[in-house]
């Protein structure tokens, strides 16, 4: 007969379950029930086991805290799932485009400027090491993470103003910020550093300062928008302190540091390094 | 303007119009709830609802480069999905609307031209429920089942053929073994069995059999 897959939320609605004695999905890890009585062997105690949502069954049983109903927060909502699907799909599409562009660059034809996409087509010619397929970053998780970091940067007013002001063909190497190429092989640190430098450079195009309202932005940080915590951001207002302070330059939280950087999405600010 | 909009009150229609022109100025949460609420009441609207939602999603993507509406819509739908058992017990019509609406969204809204994978298993879950013996007794539910299979069956199968196979075991069983089915139900089941067997289409003769007017 058909399998009936159940979602985690449904497993929470068990009003009759006697938590002290009854079976829960973690019963068998515990020697005693909550009432202190030694449990018997777990043969009879897992009626719901097969119906557990596959999300929880992936984790080793001994992993979970016995008291809770389970990590409800792990079930993604559909909104998030679709966003993740879209990101992966975009990254894959970018990858195909990039491959084609690289292959085109290997042939001595006049190359058309392709404006969209993740990397400057001059990459391969200039560096003389057009990444053969083996040298290209292809790990989807990595690409998605890098793309997210790029998106944070591109989602700023500064970036908008930059691309309007300086068309691609006018860009000068070194002077104008260039989006890091997510398809090139870099170490994690190297990549994070490139992103940091890129974003700092973009600040040059921040819109003119607004009076007064800037300190507000610290309170309005939306933690969902925060980048990976390993990312070496000089966060100051963030007392949860996700960033190592050892290698961050000492940051004075003056009003000036946050001047003139209103963003489209509120997030942790890179301090200006002057 | 979409004729389906007539189902809404004026306020919602205006919201909808504004959303298409300037998504940033509209309360997308409110709008998505209004659309879902309407669909749950009105089966004929459900089928069009997907199209309307698609229009808003597109508008938002192109004009605002965000996907807030899609996110809100899907999360609201997920709530309805999670509560489907209770909904079905309370009102079969509403339950049927939920399924129709989810399938309509699945049909219209794509991610880079690919179906939304997150919806595939939930839809299968709904169809499996509709294929249960007690549901096959309700013509409303059978009707819904075969209609959705016509609309999105092929896409579902492409994304997960194993579950489609399992579903069709159920349908064959129902058709053959369940004695108290109405002849209408048997007709619908036979048609969908043939439909899938021919590769999600009907041969000309089969089409004539099922869909031609019977001359007395």
UniProtKB/TrEMBL annotation, chain A:
Statement: the UniProt record of this protein carries the keyword RNA-binding: yes
Biased composition (Basic and acidic residues): 1-20, 32-52, 108-136
Keywords from the named record: RNA-binding
Histone RNA hairpin-binding protein RNA-binding domain: residues covered: 138-207
Alphabetized Pfam families for the sequence: SLBP_RNA_bind
Region named Disordered: 1-149, 240-260
UniProt keyword Ligase, yes or no: no
Biased composition (Polar residues): 53-67
Any one GO BP annotation for this protein: mRNA 3'-end processing by stem-loop binding and cleavage
One Gene Ontology molecular-function label: mRNA binding
GO terms under cellular component: cytoplasm; histone pre-mRNA 3'end processing complex
PANTHER family referenced in this protein's UniProt entry, alphabetically: HISTONE RNA HAIRPIN-BINDING PROTEIN
The family this protein is said to belong to: Belongs to the SLBP family.
Protein name: Histone RNA hairpin-binding protein RNA-binding domain-containing protein
UniProt source species: Culter alburnus (Topmouth culter)
UniProtKB/TrEMBL annotation, chain B:
Lineage, opening ranks: Eukaryota, Metazoa, Chordata, Craniata, Vertebrata
GO cellular component, one term: nucleus
Main localisation: cytoplasm
UniProt keyword terms in alphabetical order: Cytoplasm, Nucleus, Translation regulation
Name recorded for this polypeptide: MIF4G domain-containing protein
GO molecular function: RNA binding; translation activator activity
Classification via SUPFAM superfamilies: ARM repeat
Top-level taxonomic group: Eukaryota
Complex formation: Interacts with eif4g1, eif4g2 and slbp; probably tethered by SLBP to the 3'-end of mRNAs ending with the histone stem-loop, it also interacts with eif4g1 which is bound to their 5'-end.
Location in or out of the cell: Cytoplasm; Nucleus
Any Pfam family: MIF4G
Stored PANTHER family: EIF4G DOMAIN PROTEIN, MIF4G DOMAIN-CONTAINING PROTEIN
Keyword Calcium: no
